[in-house]
């Protein structure tokens, strides 16, 4: 059975980022990523927008575009949506701040990794910065782009996948993320969405974190993970924005949603 070397809260630096990539620790946190006012402005701007309901899994909604939603269809459809998604994201950050640009700045200044939005020579830039409103939780799942893009897109060539999320709003109770120490092993292409079998997680080491407004958490999405539902009495929605991070080459990270 695998065990993390540490399950304490870890700050962002080169050593700790490599440790998350290598699955030696479960997560990193940037505690003071945004002020309460910045977080409030961002969440309030999001709530004024008409979000898109998820097509699979537990009830939830989002703004932007997700490559995973095109896992079993032409990837060209995803790229036709990128411009519109980015324009909407720019509208939101004009009323608050730009979490994506700030996160890239943190990576560039506090680690020896480079980071850029993923790009295809044929289709152009990916979208990075999906906004999720998830108060009803998620299915347990693994995120690893090569399972449906290997041999087709640049994100299919990554060796490890992480996610970063900035929490603009968090329910009073519930809404935690649970990460299980059971890293996924790539065994071939599978373009069908499947929830992770919870029976495989029995007795597995896990790490739980409560979204804190203004913070960013980075974790390895090749580990099964789940978002727990907010308490029924909770009045504040769970609003987060972020992207996936893929290790393309040593010390080179690409981002996409």
What's the quick description here?
This is Proline hydroxylase. This protein has 257 residues and is of the alpha+beta class.
How many helical stretches? 5
Assigned CATH superfamily = q2cbj1_9rhob like domain
Radius of gyration from the CA trace? Answer: 17 Å
Q: First CA to last CA: what distance?
A: 31 Å
Mean pLDDT: 94
Helix content: 10-25%
- Regions with pLDDT < 50 over 5+ consecutive residues? none
What gross morphology would you assign? globular
How are helices and strands ordered from N to C? Answer: HEHEEHHEEEEHEEEEEEE
Number of strands: 14
Pfam families: WelO5 (PF22814)
Organism: Xenorhabdus budapestensis
InterPro entries: WelO5-like (IPR055091)
Protein name: Proline hydroxylase
What do these coordinates show?
- InterPro entries: WelO5-like.
- The protein has 257 residues and is of the alpha+beta class.
- It has one domain (14-256): Sandwich (Jelly Rolls), CATH 2.60.120.
- The protein has 5 helices and 14 strands.
- Strands 1, 2, 3, 4, 7, 8, 11, 13 and 14 form a 9-stranded mixed beta sheet that branches. A 3-stranded antiparallel beta sheet has the order 10-9-12, with no helix packed on it. A two-stranded antiparallel ribbon has the order 5-6.
- β13 and β14 (252-256) form a beta hairpin.
- 36% of the residues are buried.
